[in-house]
From TrEMBL:
Gene3D superfamilies: Tubulin/FtsZ, GTPase domain. Residues 155-336 form the DML1/Misato tubulin domain. It comes from Gossypium barbadense. GO terms for biological process: mitochondrion organization. This is DML1/Misato tubulin domain-containing protein. Belongs to the misato family.
Length: 573
């Protein structure tokens, strides 16, 4: 077994994670459905890589994500931090009296379950009744309709648990309590600087992670998804430092994600300086404790080329996180593919690689660049005919911000992941047909990478019920791109689109230079140069001159790794 432990830190990271685990749960359900699409019954995708088998207190076997989720107290909405599979325990106060003074109790108001969570509860109750009646099903008197659920979610999601259909282990959910501040105030590096170390939080978090690691036979790596736009970034950095000390030889693949609210325009120069310094410090610190870092999160997903066939509301994290989660699902597939022999072309998957091999492939080449760009085509276009093959590379658009376009880079290294590819007539292509199509696309391309690794799977991305209605009216039931729009609907959801073909690409490229240069330049301009406006701010965050110069050198090395002749890296030296 080559297990992966996933860690989600911060609100938007958990929104992404909620969609990600919904995809996995949907795949498991379709694989177990005797009447389901055979394409999902793939034995070569090992879900045990990211899931664990356990047992509840009642002796029932459980199958839950190998996950640690960290977020604010109260971020779970109507869901208990103990999960739903295990006994809740009593909320009554203890009868043991150790304090004779006045006692006052402050309890937050319980959140009501939305229609979707009510339907899950109702479904579980119906299953229990069926099992208790010798298999005879009982019709619910108040069945909740799928159309009402989709409408409910589209109109209002407040918590990431509002649309989660997954059971979590009690060790998976950690709420950061005692901060006594509004979520919107938790918006910069300084405000979260000591959160990990205070009140034994660090020990508690590390103990939860240790629970999952110690039951692994042979862990292949950690997948961190970190909301790095605010105070959760320093918490994640301190946690990552602890992880790197305790699990020295276990690689960390880190997605630094940004929600739509983090890109809001600021009204004053002071706010701009704070944000620019946060971005530089956050990126420098996080990148110090991982093998590869992938920035994810566009200022406006709706106006990007990524949304050509999508209808996104930028202000809605339920929408944006769904796109980013689909991309992360795609990039994680090679880590759970079973290595195959000479008959790989006849199989359902191709291109298995573990986390360490993946990182070495992209970051361990001659360039030694540890910052990767994530591109996606959602849904991916048809792969038949010369024009269609070329359109795939054109349709792959970055989810990484501040990336240069049309960069000719002879040292670029790429990893392409395709699954559920469709050919002419809407039929699903075999793995060997996908390989031929991708090779043909690169042969026709005007610029090619130095090296490209391909992973492919026949199973598409399944669209679970609690997925937002973000597909445009040119997307068909199985993700095929239609020649004419479907009338009467501008947005289509899970009741209309059941699965889609996906293409994702991770690349090491000079195109990341603007992202790196902006952070290095801002650190020098606002934090290091004599008389700069951010000196006192950074001191209040706990950073002295030596630490800032170390951060500057870290960023300079990243710039030099991508472009040894960069003016900005030599200037900073």
């Amino acid at each position: 077994m080559r297990e992966i432990v996933t860690v989600q830190v911060g609100s938007f990271a958990n929104f992404i994670g909620s969609h990600f685990w919904n995809f996995q749960d949907e795949m498991l359900g379709l694989a177990a459905d005797p009447y389901g699409d055979p394409v999902f019954k793939i034995q070569s995708l090992n879900m045990d890589v990211i899931y664990r088998t356990g047992e509840t207190h009642q002796g029932t076997t459980s199958y839950t994500p190998r996950l640690l989720s960290i977020d604010f107290q109260g971020s779970l909405g109507s869901v208990s931090s103990k999960g739903t599979l295990y006994s809740e325990g009593s909320n009554e106060p203890s009868e043991v009296v150790t304090w004779a003074g006045h006692v006052s109790t402050h309890a937050s108001e319980l959140q009501n379950k939305n229609l979707f969570l009510q339907s899950l509860y109702q479904e579980e109750q119906d299953v229990a009744l069926t099992n208790g009646n010798n298999g005879e099903a009982k019709d619910s008197q108040h069945e909740i309709q799928d159309t009402d659920i989709v409408r409910c979610l589209d109109e209002g999601v407040q918590f990431w648990t509002d649309f989660s259909k997954v059971h979590y282990h009690p060790q998976s959910l950690y709420e950061v309590n005692g901060l006594w501040m509004d979520v919107k105030q938790f918006d910069n590096y300084g405000i979260g600087r000591d959160v990990f170390m205070e009140n034994l939080r660090g020990e508690e978090i590390c103990d939860k992670l240790r629970f999952f690691v110690e039951e692994c036979d042979h862990i292949q790596g950690f997948q961190f998804i970190v909301d790095d736009s605010g105070g959760f970034s320093p918490l994640a950095a301190d946690f990552l430092e602890s992880v790197s000390d305790e699990y020295t030889n276990t690689p960390v693949l880190l997605y630094a994600v940004r929600g739509p609210s983090s890109h809001m325009s600021l009204s004053s120069r002071k706010q701009t300086v704070v944000r620019d310094l946060h971005d530089a410090v956050s990126f420098s610190r996080l990148s110090s404790f991982c093998k590869m870092i992938v920035p994810v999160g566009l200022p406006s997903l709706s106006r990007s080329k990524t949304s050509t066939f999508l209808n996104i509301k930028d202000e809605n994290p339920y929408h944006c996180s769904a796109v980013y989660a689909a991309a992360l699902h795609s990039t994680s597939l090679p880590f759970r593919m079973e290595p195959l022999g000479p008959t790989a072309d006849l199989s359902d998957v191709f291109g298995a690689v573990d986390v360490n091999g993946f990182v070495q492939m992209l970051a361990g080449q001659s360039r030694q660049n540890m910052v990767a760009i994530l591109d996606v085509a959602m849904p991916s276009p048809c792969l038949s005919g010369k024009q269609d093959k070329q359109s795939l590379l054109r349709n792959l658009q970055p989810l990484t911000p501040e990336v240069a376009e049309d960069v000719d880079d002879l040292q670029a290294v790429e990893s392409m992941i395709m699954h559920g590819a469709i050919g002419s007539g809407g039929h699903r292509l075999s793995v060997s047909e996908v390989k031929n199509a991708i090779h043909g696309a690169y042969e026709c391309a005007t610029t090619r990478p130095m090296f490209c690794h391909l992973s492919a799977a026949r199973c598409p991305l399944p669209i679970p019920l609690p997925f937002p209605s973000i597909f445009g009216n040119l997307v068909g039931q199985h993700g095929e791109l239609l020649g004419s729009p479907i009338l009467g609907s501008s947005s289509r959801g899970s009741l209309d689109v059941h699965s889609i073909p996906m293409a994702a690409r991770m690349r090491s490229s000079r195109a990341i230079m603007p992202f790196l240069e902006n952070r290095l330049a801002n650190l020098h301009k606002f934090g290091i140069e004599r008389g700069c406006p951010g000196t006192e701010l950074l001191r209040s965050w706990g950073f002295g001159k030596d630490e800032l110069e170390d951060m500057g050198e870290t960023l300079s090395k990243m710039v030099r790794a991508v472009d040894p002749h960069s003016d900005i890296s030599s200037d900073s030296d």
